[in-house]
Amino acid sequence: MNTVLEPGMLVRHPGCPEWGLGQVQSNIGGRITVNFEHQGKVVIDGSRVDLLAEWGGQGQANRLHPPSARAHSDRVGGSERCRTAVQTPDSA
Predict the structure, then answer these.
(1) pLDDT tens for each residue of 7-25
(2) 84-91: long-range contacts at Cβ-Cβ below 8 A with a sequence spacing of 24 or more?
(3) Taking a C-beta distance cutoff of 8 angstroms, is the pair 11, 26 a contact?
(4) CA separation, residue 58 to residues 13, 30, 51 (Å)
């Protein structure tokens, strides 16, 4: 349900907590552009990773999908999760 993400929403990448808080810039055709605090602008393949939405002012991230619906890239090692979620100009 990354489809509910809209520009301006705050998210976190579940496999890359070191990226910090990110703000959605766009969400077009499953390609979600997010500007993260410590990583900069990243294009995420929404079919491979479920971003965590921030809401409620508690600073806690909430999954947009139940755990059973999480993508494969959310279950592999940390750095691999980051790498498989990002679309580079060559893979876009």
Answers:
(1) 999 999 999 999 999 999 9
(2) 84/45, 84/48, 84/49, 85/13, 85/15, 85/16, 85/42, 85/44, 85/45, 85/48, 85/49, 86/42, 86/43, 86/44, 86/45, 87/31, 87/43, 87/44, 87/45
(3) no
(4) 17, 28, 17
Q: In this predicted structure, what is the pLDDT of residue 79?
A: 53
Q: Tokens standing for 9?
A: 């929403």
**Coil, helix or strand for 34?**
strand
Whether 85 contacts 15, CB under 8 Å: yes
pTM, rounded to two decimals: 0.66
